[in-house]
Amino acid sequence: MKIKDLTLLERASLLSGRSMWDSRGIERAGIHSFVLSDGPHGLRRQMGSGDNLGIGESKPATCFPTAGTVACSWDPELAESMGRALGEEARSLGVNVVLGPGMNIKRNPLCGRNFEYYSEDPQVAGHMAAGLIRGIQSQGVAATPKHFAMNSQELRRQASNSVVDERTLRELYLTGFEIAVRQARPWALMTSYNMVNGTYANENKHLLQDILRDEWGFDGMVVSDWGGSNSAIAAAANGSSLEMPEAGFDSMRQLVAAVQSGELAESDLNARAEEVAKLAKLTYDPHMNREGLLSKEQQRKHHDVARHIAEGSAVLLRNENNCLPLAAGSKVALVGDMAKTPRFQGSGSSKVNATQEESLLELMQSEHNTGLELAAYAQGYDRHGERNQALIDEAVQASSGADIIVACLGLDERSESEGLDRSTMDIPQAQTDLLTALHKTGKPIVVVLVAGSPVSTDWIDNCESLLYIGLAGQASASATLNLLTGKVNPSGHLAETWPIAYDDCPSSDAYPETERDVVYKEGPFVGYRYYLSADVPERFPFGFGLSYTHFTYSNMSADRQGVTLNVTNDSDKPGATVVQIYVSAPEGGVLRPVRELKGFTKVALDAHETRQVQVSFDQYTFRHWDTDSNAWQCESGEWTVMVGSDARRIELSAPVEIEGSVEPKPAEPALGHYLQAQVKEVNEEELNALFGYPVVRQGKLDSFGPNDPISSWKDSKSGLARFVASFLTKRETKQEAKTGSPDLNTLFVLNMPPRAMAKMTNGMISTQMVDAIVRIPNGHAWKGIGGFIAGFFRNSSANRRTRKELNHE
To answer: Which residue numbers delimit the Fibronectin type III-like domain (predicted)?
Structure first.
């Protein structure tokens, strides 16, 4: 049976979920329901009603390293191996669609969800995501890159408007998605909660139709983030296929009425229904057991995969006097609560019920063949930052009989989570106080750093070695031990810049934005593009990573097709490095950062081996988005191609003459401070010059609409609305103080606009009922309450009629 043969209501029904995690099927048409599940770094397969915040229980699954950690491997093949394991687990757990990878550009280090995203650079994000997508879909399971697009802060995430100029949007924030879509052909894609230049991402024609479908050729299913759909009609008209979760019958009735009135073209409804049906067919497996569990063999095998990925992703940031690797027989004082109770993932919808957990302390106490002697263990600090001098004193005493101290430090569970942004880049003071006290013992110190994103390291001179393991998944402890002892040679490189201080960040003075409009004032100068162009020193540059071996680069040649060079391992042990290719445009051209990454490859070499390495250029290498012609162009002239061991340290360079599509066009003088990347000094006129039109921000609200978050009700004239906002805020604060973890449910409600109620209550609340709710903060409490009650009965009656029609009763 073809889509056009279904009733109008049946076609509309395919565009919204049946439950929290299931799509709606149509049995008589052979369209099967499919199961979606969170899964950027492990499956969160919930049964029953479930939730979208990682609060409820889920089936055991392998917790792999998070995207922010895996990106430091700079190894798409490693990401692909992780994807294959994820796809295999999805099939075993009855999942058809994996909601990942997350690949938004990291605009600011304090974004609470940065651990779920790959990089500040679209080349790294795009190629790493493409690897994961290929791996997942090789198992007959759909991958879903997200969040498309411009999700850069968690505060007000369902009610914020990302305001960005077209060049920056195209070149920085969309290119990673473009690479992933063109290279890996994902079967699905998820939109973000926020608006982009005034239109919600899930109904943004420019994003979904003009760019994603028409320009990039994406022909898959687009799904909203959970509760992220604003208008079902606008979504269907502009390229979004499926509302999730269970929006209920109200959305169906709106779609049917819109087609009947001519507001929505029937061809658009049919196209969206076809996309859902196509995905159902692609992922259908009659033998899939929706109640399934992982086998013991799978659990063991994938734990080993998780360890291998963690080993390839760890970054050695400091190694004074070759303190690492630890010599065999070393007597080690192990310090830090995280050495006993590991933290290896973030909080929120990506939180995995790991099949196995291991700790550094447990492994060193066991018969595990480490070659080390555990002299003592001490907790060292309170996990959630309370100062406790007794714990510091105990740790100092414990180190007295050791040759070396290994201190496990980092961020706790409440510091990095979906739903809220970090308040600081610092690790807790209790931990830095501990490190200061340990340094005074005179013993060499190795810090094992646990964090999903950059932290301030003004304490770094108090340790000899710093090994950044990130959020390394359930096998993080054994991976760390292998790295410390030299069984594995560190080969990770940072996929984002680590600033000396937070104030050095280009967006530090306006993050997170507390009002609706988030203006991306820094334009293209994000991450290393800013630090290099503005000549601001960083603690660790983008692409930085040390090794137990040393590498030499030589014999470089470059042309329009790519770069060829020799890489030599000068040391007595095997190791791997990342060859990074940067380009600089001809002088006198359009506004650009001083150089940009345009290619990379990871190279593993035996001791004293030399290998010729080739990195090819592609359609993304020399292009820029030209707003005058509304097209990609390439400037003619002499470009400079560079080989870097990181973004700051250039090893080799060569000129390349490029015959482009346009002659260099000088940057507009009106850009002012942008010309030297002094983005914090940019004034309104210069901002308007970057955008090409006056940037208008929403003023202070005089009234509240269905898309204003409940947190904004604190400014309402209505005492009832203010009470609701105040009650929720106090509840979240109290819960966090009590449990040590953020109250994600309450945070979600605070950030939620009322219109989301109609999208997340399985049809219990209709759009008309939302309109009634909005009367309350606008000072009409009794009219709002009365309208809500009346709307409830009207909606219940309409739902009964729709259910009968849909079931052909």
So the answer is: 577-647
Cα gap 613→578, rounded to integer Å: 11
Tokens for 669?
A: 């003088």
553 lies in the same domain as 489 = no
Q: How confident is the model at residue 52 (pLDDT cuts 50, 70, 90)?
A: low
The catalytic residues are 225
For residue 331, which of 401, 393, 407 has the smallest C-alpha distance? 401
DSSP 8-class letter at 579? E
Query: To the nearest whole number, what is the mean pLDDT of the chain?
Result: 95
pTM value? 0.96
Comparing C-alpha atoms, which of 573, 598, 575, 576 is closest to residue 585?
A: 598
Contact yes or no for 109/119 (Cβ under 8 A): no
DSSP for 185-209?
--SEEEB-SSEETTEEGGG-HIIII
In a domain, 195, yes or no: yes
Shared domain for 279 and 307, answered yes or no, is no
- Of 49-53, 229-233, 267-271, 759-763, the poorest mean pLDDT is in 49-53
Confidence (pLDDT) at 735? 83
d(CA 42, CA 98) in angstroms, rounded, equals 9
Asked if 54 contacts 104 with a C-beta cutoff of 8 angstroms, the reply is no
Contact (CB, 8 A) for 758 and 795: no
Domain shared by 87 and 214, yes or no: yes
What's the one-letter identity of residue 571?
S
Segment 308-366, tens digit of pLDDT? 999 999 999 999 999 999 999 999 999 999 999 999 998 888 899 999 999 999 999 98
Task: Using the predicted structure, report yes or no on whether residue 367 has a pLDDT greater than 70.
Answer: no
Q: List the domain range (segments joined by +) for residue 404.
A: 303-493
First-to-final CA distance of the chain = 20
* Partner residues linked to 387 by β-bridges: none
